[in-house]
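In response to reviewer comment 3 from the previous cycle, which asked for concrete evidence that the modeling workflow produces usable outputs, we include below a single protein chain processed end to end. The sequence was submitted unchanged, and the resulting structure tokens are shown without manual editing.
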Amino acid sequence: MEVEEGDEGSGGGGSGKREDTVEISSENSGPARSRSEDDLLEHDDDDEDDGDKTKKKKRKKYHRHTADQIREMEALFKESPHPDEKQRQQLSKQLGLAPRQVKFWFQNRRTQIKAIQERHENSLLKQELEKLRDENKAMRESVSKACCPNCGMATTSKDGSITTEEQQLRIENAKLKAEVEKLRTIIGKYPPGAASSGPCSAGNDQENRSSLDFYTGIFGLEKPRIMEIVNQAMKELKKMATAGEPLWVRSVETGREILNYDEYVKEFRVENSSNGRPKRSIEASRETGVVFVDLPRLVQSFMDANQWKEMFPCIISKAATVDVICNGETPNKNGAVHLMFAELQMLTPLVPTREVYFVRYCKQLSAEQWAIVDVSIDKVEENIDASLVKCRKRPSGCIIEDKSNGHCKVTWVEHLECQKSTVPTMYRTFVISGLAFGARHWIATLQLQCERLVFFMATNVPTKDSTGVATLAGRKSILKLAQRMTWSFCHAIGASSYHTWNKVPGKTGEDIRVSSRKNLNDPGEPLGVIVCAVSSVWLPVSPNVLFDFLRDEARRNEWDIISNGGPVQSIANLAKGQDRGNAVSIQTMKSKENSMWVLQDSCTNAFESMVVFAPVDINGMQSVITGCDSSNMAILPSGFSILPDGLESRPLVITSRHEKSNDSEGGSLLTIAFQILTNSSPTAKVTMESVESVNTLISCTLRNIKMSLQCEDC
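The workflow returned the following structure tokens.
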């Protein structure tokens, strides 16, 4: 049960509420705490007659609440930690207490919860500090003792000819090799140090064999037990995907399906931890949609970690296959079981990522139907990295049904247990409701990517959907470049551990996050030092209106500082979806001094929208238009991500307890991001001038957007 922490000076008022949420623990409540609470209660009146010793002695006769009184107040506290005057009056009559006693008990209880939360957060911060100190110590030792992992010779150069980047790469390489040795030691596939001693002539089949073929168990579990778990998970997924009421109830207000958690516990015999402290929140959702892709290709995309990540670039920041437990039948992957890792993100650095290890099982249910199920297995995360036990998957995944003409019907179920994390106020409703990482988000993204693929492969594109580009090869080359640009944008602005974000104040009061990186040899980006600045704000404008405004080249000069208010013209426009907002365009800005081309990729679906753009070299872009390869064209994207603010956000798990609705006024959550190359030398350092420049760029652009949409006061 989640409780909103209140401002203690506000009594029971709602206007002073803070948005922090905490988990209520029964081990911190009850009679054992009643004396300290009543100490605070009785001492409230101690200021009246301090000189009267007789009265002071009388006041020290503490009043203890009975177990029944505490039980009733605890029950109301879990439902409403800030009861109003009417609730306090009713409860005081019921318990035989004064309304003032009830009021002070609730104030004291909130204070206790707040103290518990702060102690927990302090403990986590101390652990993180110790971890950072250990990592720093290890890196210092690695620098002083760095050696080649192959020949064992020292790599430290006395003449200083080795650059800092080379030293860092060698240190990182040594750490990765140590991690590989650690994993191999744990699973017993090879003895320590014997990584290269295995046979090399067994062919691809031998190389792809699961480590379970060489030892008796994985992280304490044997292969039969893992197969038993994934088969049970498959049964649960099929029932969750097909069952109706009472397991799933459709909301009258939003039309979305809500999991009846009480019914779920009874149906699947889930252990209920209500007697202990619930450490995690539950998110459950289901969505069905039709996608334009053939079934074998879709199944392959799920079983290949790289393809899976590319299919969902705005959700997945990292993905890897940790181990192949079972290869399944070739080539269709029927029966394949993989241990996988994923880092899930939102397109803002404000919302923490979610790291999850899970086993993925692929199974053909019939000639036209396949299922992909994900389920986390106990102790896997702890044995790989105990610091990553943040999110676990209950049986989740999708049922894929083959339809005619290259269509598939996908029913997606997402069911997660997540540890609490600090989320900014404007995103909290969106995340806690389950929308951020729910089934609707996955389905909408899958539909968008599959539609983009169809338009990319099409050979009979109508002229109106491909203006300004004469050849099919040119169209494909531009679409491929735009897709790479959008992937790069999604990778650059999230809260992934790839980045280190620093908070700086904006020119007009907004918070801006800044990070930097060095591109040493990637031809797809400019070489040198790159600074990225991101800011997320709430605007009282609907997402559709905001998206249409930002993608419209006719209104670009209203917000784009680079255009200097001059006209912007579209010289090419390529449709990549049925919605007119899904398009790639090449725009030109002309000034007295020079002319500049900008490549823009706009994407929209039922869940979110993006407008991504980057200045491009004119000669290079002209070559791309003729059909030349665009893979080595350097491009540095900036852009916008747009989400609804959570108007439809209501809990996606219902229980026997009443949950208070968290409706808010409709609007948009806008994330604006700019990337600039501050120095073409990778060895250069980030200067305050470059940070100031990108800060100004964010603040001025945001101010222009607010002025154009007449929402300067928000």
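The mean pLDDT is 76. We consider this sufficient to address the reviewer's concern, and the full set will be provided in the supplementary archive.
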